[in-house]
Amino acid sequence: MSKRILILFISFFVLHLSAQKENISSYNVITINYKHNSKIFAYAEGQLRGIEEFSYPDYYELKGGIGYNLSKNHKPLIGIGRYVSYKNRSLEKEEFRVWLQDVYDLKAGKFKFENRVRAEKSWFYNTLKDENSDRIRLRYRLNVSLPLNAEKVESGTISANVYDEVFFVTTENPLFARNRVYAGLSYQIDDHFGLASGYLWQREFADSGNKNLHFVYLGLSLNIDRTEPEKKGLSDLD
To answer: Could you tell me which of 65, 72, 69 has the C-alpha nearest to residue 100?
Structure first.
């Protein structure tokens, strides 16, 4: 019975995409998290997306940031990034972005609720039109995660993850510009490596018409923690 329901769901999903003339896109992410000490941390991330064609990348971004742990659950950060889009396999738009971010975590039993707020300033160059522009955007994301086979995330833990993120552009119309919803699973291989995969739906709002994007998400994360020797009592070996 459960297999029938799954087959019906997949068939309905494929038919829906065909009717709407929408395709499946790819969303690939590599993230490096670096913990310098109990307060200071940094991260770097690269993304590669195939929007028009699943197997042909037409968008990439490179970004990074430095953050500070005000408390165990409160982590502000400042970041910068470069974002490049292609159209018909030709360079279309380049973006340089800076942002301020604030993350506050809440826990209820095994559930973790991550509240993330971002304020971004972007500068664009459209190579096809030879035009410069800028944008101010605000984002809020609520991410809920739940370890399925352990009390907390550790080596060998499988977790379920769901989030909803909304985007508001203060310099353009409409104000509510995007909604992004994700559902998937993650696997913590060991203390350093983790994998995540799932489905990401993105709704773009515009005066000229709305657009839906459907992504298969695949992520790899690498965690580097300089405080680990201290935790193991090895900090005085030198």
So the answer is: 65
